[in-house]
Amino acid sequence: MCPTKCHRAKASVLYRNSNEYELLLPKNVKDKLKEMDARSQIVKSTYNIELDSDNFLVKIILPIESKAEKQYYVYSELSIRIILERLNLLYFQIILSICWGIIFHLLFAIYLFKKIFSRLKILSNTSNQMSQGELTARNDWDFSKNDELDQLGISFNEMATNIEKSITEVKKLNKEIQRELEIGKQVQTMFLPNTNLIKIFKPSIYYRPMREVSGDIYNFFDIDERFKAVFLADATGHGVSAAIVTTVIQMSLNSILTKTKNPKIIMNFLCKELLDVFDSYFMASGVFFLFDGNEKVYIVNSAHNPPLLIRQKDRTVTEIMANGSLLGMDEFTAEDIKYTKIYPGDKFLFYTDGLVEAKNDKNEMYGLEKVKDYLSKNFDLDNKIILDDLVSDFTGFVQEYKDDVTAILIEVPENES
């Protein structure tokens, strides 16, 4: 603290703060006081601040209000170095806190991984193995913690064990069912006719069940020297149920043919038999062609796909439309049988809907028009070649089989009577 008179004749230190830092008045303090006194004539209150950049000091001189004759000043020095040191210390503490935070989170993450995520990873890998068919895959870790994850892992292992047992049992049953279906296929094949029965018609046959057993069935009958018959049926549904229906049809057909060869009576009998056995739960479409050696054919078409008649004379293709109701309905209805005049060399194609309704990868059906066009253009070829080429084109077209497929091509023989 420096007292002075108005003329600033003399400056002296009245009080010095006791501090480890020795505070000395600047050498030019008198000049600075004079400068401050000069400014005070213009500004009521003034002070002096000087920055010592070499020593990182701020030197301040402040006047003190006083009624005494003498003027007093306060002189102080503020060290910027201390502030910088404090800031550096603050920065260090911040960096240290960040480092500790990172270390803490890292350690916490390792803890979580060991305690939680490692088990979740094992559980995920085991689930993937199970989904890929590795039924023996199990969670394998120390279940001593007995927490929720341990309980989940134990439950998963128990579930996997039950699934393995169930699938093993299902596979065993499937093998047994497959063996039974193979037997059923052999039995059904035994019901298929010998083509020698209508050898004079030069039959060519394509028969493709969608599964081991088929819902399509056909038969040939050499009734006598004059009359020959062709029968084709398509039961509703697929697989075992449809095969049972066709078996009933075959047995019933063999029975009724010992009593009559009238197509209408035969189909009426089949309808009644199916109705009695299956009570309208299962039905079938079918066609019965009775060939008369006098160049006539008597036809009953029970809601079946129209067989095709290809005339030898001009290669025209005619559809033989249905004239009766489905077999196995409440009541069989059919128009009176009319004969169709046929000539040697005419050809018939009998088929089920699996042929014309099969689809390609663009969801387009193979279609009846393609079949008719092919038959007309290739009429002069041998029946086997015609059907083999048609089937080759058909199998190249189809993306997936969703029904049984049957096709029978025959040719009207010369009249030997």
Which features characterize this protein?
alpha+beta; 41% helix; Phosphatase 2c, domain 1; five-stranded antiparallel β-sheet; rod-shaped; 417 residues; 8 helices
Short summary of the structure?
It is built from eight helices and 14 strands. It has helices at residues 29-40, 80-131, 148-191, 239-256, 263-278, 353-356, 368-377, 383-397; strands spanning 2-4, 48-52, 57-64, 71-79, 204-208, 216-222, 227-235, 284-292, 296-302, 308-310, 317-319, 339-341, 347-351, 405-411.
Descriptive report:
With 417 residues, the chain is of the alpha+beta class. It folds into two domains: 82 residues, no CATH class; 220 residues, PPM-type phosphatase domain (Phosphatase 2c, domain 1, 4-Layer Sandwich), CATH 3.60.40.10. Helices cover 41% and strands 20% of the residues. The strands form three sheets. A five-stranded antiparallel sheet has the order 5-14-13-10-11. Strand 6 and strand 7 form a beta hairpin. Helix 2 packs parallel to helix 3, helix 3 packs parallel to helix 4 and helix 4 crosses helix 5. The longest helix is centred in the N-terminal third of the chain and has 52 residues. It is rod-shaped.
